[in-house]
């Protein structure tokens, strides 16, 4: 009896999404082939100082705003003695531990970018690589994330501003901002990470937001991570049920 060939699956990116995709493909009897354009796994969590095009990376000081229990893979908990809210170096180390434990690394082609993906006449997929090769796959998984391309609003008069304009996607650390007057536009996670770090070295720091916002601590009363408490089923029930006014839950 002729052996059925395992379906080949192209996985683009070896970050937090790409790694479990490799693992899941192996468990389902598929043949995963992962392409990673850098020399390391980790994607966003592999801190780099280069500011090349689409070089997505965390800031040097980034600490996750989700507790390790809530962000970990369900089948591979982080070491118990690691901090609840991990510095990005811990997250990167965790991803390496995960990849080595499940023997995923030898399925990854490093320093290889995917240039294009096109549907073949037979329903499969042609994948063109930066090496000049072209490979045929049964399926493609896009695990490139959504932090590589910054969105820069078109503010009136911005082109006349003589100071430095920098998107948070390209921010690495505070150097160059010492004793400056800085305006941060936005109040999301990245904006506030920048604000906290820059507040220690700038002359003046302003945060601009279109509307008010709740600022949550990472740790709730009693020292428990806030997400373990507020992302529970009972909290979800109270928040979405008829018992608590909308004005309080929002």
From TrEMBL:
Keyword Endoplasmic reticulum belongs to the record: yes
Gene3D superfamilies, per database record: FAD/NAD(P)-binding domain (3.50.50.60)
Catalyzed reactions: N,N-dimethylaniline + NADPH + O2 + H(+) = N,N-dimethylaniline N-oxide + NADP(+) + H2O; hypotaurine + NADPH + O2 + H(+) = taurine + NADP(+) + H2O; hypotaurine + NADH + O2 + H(+) = taurine + NAD(+) + H2O; trimethylamine + NADPH + O2 = trimethylamine N-oxide + NADP(+) + H2O
Main enzyme class: oxidoreductase
InterPro entries hit by this protein: FAD/NAD-bd_sf, Flavin_mOase, Flavin_mOase-like, FMO-like
Keywords assigned: Endoplasmic reticulum, FAD, Flavoprotein, Membrane, Monooxygenase, NADP, Oxidoreductase, Transmembrane, Transmembrane helix
Signal peptide positions (record): none
Names of the cofactor(s): FAD
Domain of life: Eukaryota
A Pfam family that the UniProt record links to this protein: FMO-like
Keyword match Endoplasmic reticulum: yes
EC number(s) on file: 1.-.-.-
Record family assignment: Belongs to the FMO family.
Identification of the protein by name: Flavin-containing monooxygenase
Organism of origin: Plectus sambesii
């Amino acid at each position: 009896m002729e052996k059925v060939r395992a379906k080949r699956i192209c996985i683009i990116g070896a970050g937090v999404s790409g790694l479990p995709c490799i693992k899941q493909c192996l468990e389902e009897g598929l043949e995963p082939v992962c392409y990673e354009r850098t020399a390391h796994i980790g994607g966003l969590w592999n801190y780099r100082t280069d500011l090349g095009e689409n070089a997505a990376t965390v800031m040097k000081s980034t600490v996750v705003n989700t507790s390790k229990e809530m962000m970990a893979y369900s089948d591979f908990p982080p070491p118990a003695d690691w901090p609840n809210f991990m510095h990005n170096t811990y997250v990167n180390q965790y991803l390496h531990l995960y990849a080595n434990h499940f023997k995923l690394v030898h399925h990854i082609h490093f320093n290889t970018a995917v240039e294009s993906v096109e549907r073949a006449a037979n329903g499969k997929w042609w994948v063109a690589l930066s090496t000049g090769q072209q490979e045929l796959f049964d399926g493609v998984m896009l695990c490139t994330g959504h932090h590589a391309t910054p969105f820069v609003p078109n503010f009136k008069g911005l082109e006349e501003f003589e100071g430095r304009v920098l998107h948070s996607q390209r921010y690495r650390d505070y150097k160059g901002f010492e004793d400056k007057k800085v305006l941060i536009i936005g109040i999301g996670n990245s904006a506030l990470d920048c604000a906290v770090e820059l507040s220690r070295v700038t002359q003046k720091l302003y945060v601009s937001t279109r509307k008010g916002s709740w600022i949550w601590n990472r740790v709730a009363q009693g020292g428990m991570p806030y997400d373990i408490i507020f992302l529970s089923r009972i909290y979800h029930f109270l928040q979405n049920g008829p018992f608590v006014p909308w004005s309080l839950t929002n």
